[in-house]
Amino acid sequence: MMFVVIGLLPVFFPQWIYVENRMIVFAIVALALATSLIYEVWRTYLEKRGRDTKLVINIQLLTSVVLLTAFLHFFGRINGPFFVLYLLTVMESFLNRNIFLSNVIVSIMIFATTAEFTWLTFQKEIVLGFIPIVELMVRILSLVFMRAYGFVLAQKIISEEESRNKVQETAARLEKVTRELKTSNVKLKEFSALKDEFVSVASHELRAPMTTIKGYIAMILEGDAGKIPPKVKDFLRESYESNDRMIRLINNMLNVSRIESGRMIMDLNDIQIEKAIEEVVKDFSLEAKEHGLKLGYQRPEKKLPKVRVDPDRIREVIANLVGNAINFTAHGSILIKNRFEDGMVITEVEDTGVGISREDQKKLFKKFSQVDVISLRKGSGLGLYICKMLITEFGGEIWLKSKVGKGTTFFFSLPAIDHKV
Amino acid sequence: MDEEKQAAEEQPAPTAPEEKRPPEEEKPASPQKTLGKVLLIEDDLPMVKMYNTKLEKENFETQVAYTGEEGLEKIKEWSPDLVVLDLMIPKIGGMEVLEKLRADPKTKNLPVMVLSNLSQERDITRSRELGVKDYIIKANYTPSQVVEIIKGYLKK
To answer: What is the CATH number of the domain that holds A285?
Structure first.
């Protein structure tokens, strides 16, 4: 742009050119216009392709400086040593990239140019008038323009460099983070494997003595060691139940760790829920009887549709609910019912126990939650949590209705496989 | 053979050293009365005693192997009707015993019941792949319940 402005001056005011070689000045202007056009096209092309434009900008600047210097040489009458300084100023403003220093140098240059003029006037080489003043102004303006032009280009290159550096920096940081993540991932995996190994070995080692305690007590209770007095039987039963509680606790903890880490493999089968309930009821009938409770199953008249579950796990859920009902019911009954509703097979376990307050109901299905009432046997606080996880896994829901002092009914639903049955 | 026995004897817990080899091992049971021959591959002595007592009471003919290697030998010599296999056993692990049994055409279809306290899905899945009758976690069953399950398999 600057070439256009300065270059057009001799076109409109040819009388300003003191020297005879007017044609040379025009040639310089034409050359400047042509080269800036070429450079502009070249730079746009490179920018579009996302390539580095630093080289073009440098060459463009260098050409501008040389051409302007030549232009001023031929345009004006003054060919003093300050032309070299012109060149230096522009170069400096570009190369130095320091605004303050650049401003100082440009100020010195403007002062020097004015001083040269004054000196020449004083020497009577120039007659002070309108035209010499314009020439002075053109020189000063060209200096300022040149400097600004160089500076803008320099800024462009700086920002390009900065953004490139930033990209490289970000890439490096990303790479570092990725590497760190990989390492910690490997460590986590190792740790997880170690934890699994530990849990597995620890549970195995804990289960071994519990198995024999359970086994021998069961054998004594079954009369394998001869007849035993009722009191001994009663005490042994207590120890048997405590031991069983520990076994269940280990099982529950293993289950929780397995469910949470997604390692639990479900052995899904299409089954009749009635059969599973009957099996659980059979398992608990003795215990209920001992506690003086009536445990019953009201089998529906019509056969229920099948459900897709892991039979062992669904028995676990039912056993958990029935076990809880027995633990929290001092007297009365526990009744299990089934029904088919909206494509879901619903099972309910109803007791006449202590009931659960509204506050307790809210946290009931959470991990390690314990209801704050006296129970015959405390649980691990994991049972209902596991029930919820399992039922959810099978595509159903679990919920309850309860009244303090009246009893509790737990419900769980499972999606029916075939609706026609 | 000697090495093997030595190793087997070193293995069990230091308690009750006299009882390492229960004498009932070679008990001459009247063959027409037994419900079947059960080989127990198990290294934990209290457990061996417990299951053995119950099985014999229910009229099963039993033998015990304390290591995997011994178990494989006894299967060859004695040809039991059912193998009750623990997984954490010395020398050759239970899973390896099972793999070896399945690789041998003679024992390919021999009924095996895993009776272990390991409950990792990995073990359960692998055992099922190798066609075990059942995978039972010891701690969850009383000896009577285990014997009931065995009865169910051997009932013709």
So the answer is: 3.30.565.10
